[in-house]
Amino acid sequence: MSQPILSIIPMHGAIAAQRSITLDVLVKITPPAVTALPDRPPLNLGFVLDRSGSMQGAKIDYARRAIAYGIEQLLPSDRLSLTLFDTHVQTEIPSTLATDKQRLIDQVHRIRPGSSTALHGGWVNGGMQVSQYLNPAHLNRVILLSDGLANVGETNPDAIAQDVHGLMQRGITTTALGVGTDYDENLLEAMARSGDGNFFHIESPDQLPAIFEAELQGLATTLGHSVTLSLNPQAQGVISDILNDLERTPEGALKLPNLTLGTPLYVALRLQIPALSMGTQVLQVQLRWQTPDQAEPQQLEAGLYLPVVSPEQMSDFPAHGEVQEQVALLMAARARQEAVAFADVGDFGSAAASLRQTGELLRAAPASAAIAAEGEALEDLSTAFGTKGQGMVARKRAKSEAYHLNRSRSSRHGQQPQDPIS
Q1: Which domain holds residue 257?
Q2: Which tens digit of pLDDT belongs to each residue from 149-191?
Q3: Which of 185, 216, 223, 257 could in theory staple to 407 by disulfide, Cβ–Cβ 3.0 to 4.6 A?
Q4: Cα 323 to the chain's mean position, in Å?
């Protein structure tokens, strides 16, 4: 399979002579397009389902349907397990090949809700099931679904996130799905960050099948994992800001989402460049990733060379539309993070106002489908923050939407309308 394309796109294609500047720069990683169903590595999945008492009714019904949908999409070479947790942890389906799907789906449909929430214990058991058949050439992931707070066993978010990170270092990633209004979004987001997976906020249980579909499609089209990006300014330049909110490796490289076919990744940064008299390279970047079928990491490098022109010639180098769009989307992610901070001190009015203000700035940005969709999402979220009794629900949505935007996805990733699943 061909490699991704690594590009560096400056807001302006030149800089004015003898003038220092702060320049927005976009690093774009473009994996190959999806031209046909790829020959993907086998999946090794551990479904972990909260069946505490609060999951009764529509939540448990849609969770069953979502997991059943996931099983239907697996190949006979894929493995799955199913762990249930309430006060106790139970291995409902030990890790097995997805051959007798109907038998497995019948087991899923028999799940009934129980009592409390041993979230950490359930996740640990799911990780153990995946670990039994761990293969670096496969895609190994725990998919956790919960609607509540960890209140049995280990409940410290830092300790849980550290355990998730340790499992990720062994090659098993974690995706966390929070359902409803009562789960701990800080914990689930931390698990997704530490586990190199995804975090989804699910306001309505009928969103579950679509989100499971997005998660499984992402796994099926994975080109590379353990993706990092190193940014090295040149010519005495300095990176003053990285607009994406991303984790870093101990060496300081940015940790990026998986490379998936047909899905570009964007990292936007602000580069302070001193006054220059001649053109030069101002930035070098290095992309590294791991593929399931190769032991050695893959690597690409690129550099940004900028010519120096007279101030009068700068009008020949207008702002780049793609850079403007991605910067605007990432500023919308920051507005959500600011709204979360206001919500944490009970100031939901300021949270709504901050989002409205950013929405106005978006309307001034160059028109595009992504900008228009994001403007609508901000308006909806602002309304939610301004509605009595909805502030903490809006906080959960803001956390999830910012998480996706920072990873080059739509703020409503995985929540497109879907046909009903029977």
Answers
A1: 5-37+224-311
A2: 777 778 788 899 899 999 998 989 999 998 888 888 999 999 9
A3: 257
A4: 20
